[in-house]
Amino acid sequence: MAVPRIPGWPVFSSVCRIFIRRGPSAYPRHMASRSTPTPSRASVRPVGSVTRGTTNPNRLRRMDRWIAATHGAALRRAQAPVAVDLGYGAAPWTAVELLARLREAAPRVRVVGIEIEPARVAGAKPYERDGLSFRHGGFEVPLDGGVRPALIRAANVLRQYDEEQVAEVWARLCARLAPDGLLVEGTCDEIGRRHVWVALGPEGARTVTFATRLGSLERPSDLAERLPKALIHRNVPGEPVHAFLRDFDRAWAAAAPYASYGARQRWIRTARALSGDWPLADGPGRWRQGELTVRWEALRPSG
User: 3-class SS at 116?
Assistant: First the structure.
């Protein structure tokens, strides 16, 4: 699906390119502050690398709904909750949708979309509204006044990094969270049918959630291609995630008689069977949504 043309994109993009090449001198003198020294390049350079930016409307619906259901109470308790859509991509659809879905659970939440590519920030500015803003940045998560976000969502971002970089990025992002904040990092397919994410608190990783459109699923291990970066290269014999997906497929096969009642009932039966051997962190209420959440300790890579 082609990304719709965003009004004003050519002008904003040109300005951003000029600024990148020439620095602050590209602006007229009357726009520069004489009283404030210009920060050094190192102090303002965002942390991270530009990603492909692939995005689609409604792509992150499964992750958003899970966040609203499991983290909504924490967002409501916060005095001025801020949620960050980190690396929203070439168009701002996911940030717009995140605000709408979170406000159903926490009406006072604000969403800040952060992108490392200046042209994408400029293109998103026309979509700003009450509770939604966009800014240039990266894994440093720059927020006004040093605010600590109650939520950071990073979807399809680390997929483009090396596995060895994941722990450092997780630690940096978790350090930016509010005391009861949540980092959700994961990967999905292009239209959001299959999604796997890790949920982390300030202390580190907590759970791994597998979410899918049940009507399109042949076997649970089909989700392996959407494992987050921390796990995707560990789906080999001897690794916990490989053993889990093997048992997931076996339980799914054993639950085949329940398919006559629908894919949802088969999934629920599969989850019940898995719960005997694996530490699941959710129950039937979430299983009915095509989700299954496992404690991180059970899937943590070995070695």
Answer: coil
How far apart CA 125 and CA 300 sit, in angstroms, is: 39
Instruction: Name 205's bridge partners.
Output: 200
Q: How far is CA 184 from CA 67, 155, 213, in A?
A: 8, 8, 20
Going residue by residue through the chain (303 aa), what tens digit of pLDDT does each one get?
Answer: 443 444 443 433 343 333 333 343 333 333 333 333 333 334 578 998 888 778 889 999 999 999 999 999 999 999 999 999 999 999 999 999 999 999 999 999 999 999 999 999 999 999 999 999 999 999 999 999 999 999 999 999 998 899 999 999 999 999 999 999 999 999 999 999 999 999 999 999 999 999 999 999 999 999 999 999 999 999 999 999 999 999 999 999 999 999 999 999 999 999 999 999 999 999 999 999 999 999 999 999 997
Phi, psi of 240 (to 5 degrees): -55, -40
Going by C-alpha positions, the residue among 211, 162, 208, 163 that lies closest to residue 185 is: 208
Asked whether the beta carbons of 242 and 250 are under 8 A apart, the reply is no
* Amino acid of residue 175: A
Residue 7 has which token pair?
Answer: 């009004």
CA–CA distance, 5 with 66 (Å, rounded to integer): 30
Q: Is the pTM of this model over 0.70?
A: yes
The C-alpha angle with vertex 3 and arms to 155 and 159, in degrees rounded to 5, equals 25
Q: Residue 286 CA to chain centroid, in angstroms? A: 19
CB 187 within 8 A of CB 194: no
Q: Distance between CA atoms of 123 and 222, rounded to whole angstroms?
A: 35
> Taking the mean position of all CA atoms in its chain, how far away is CA 234?
20
Which three-class secondary structure state does DSSP give residue 186?
strand
Q: Cα separation of 61 and 67, whole Å? A: 10
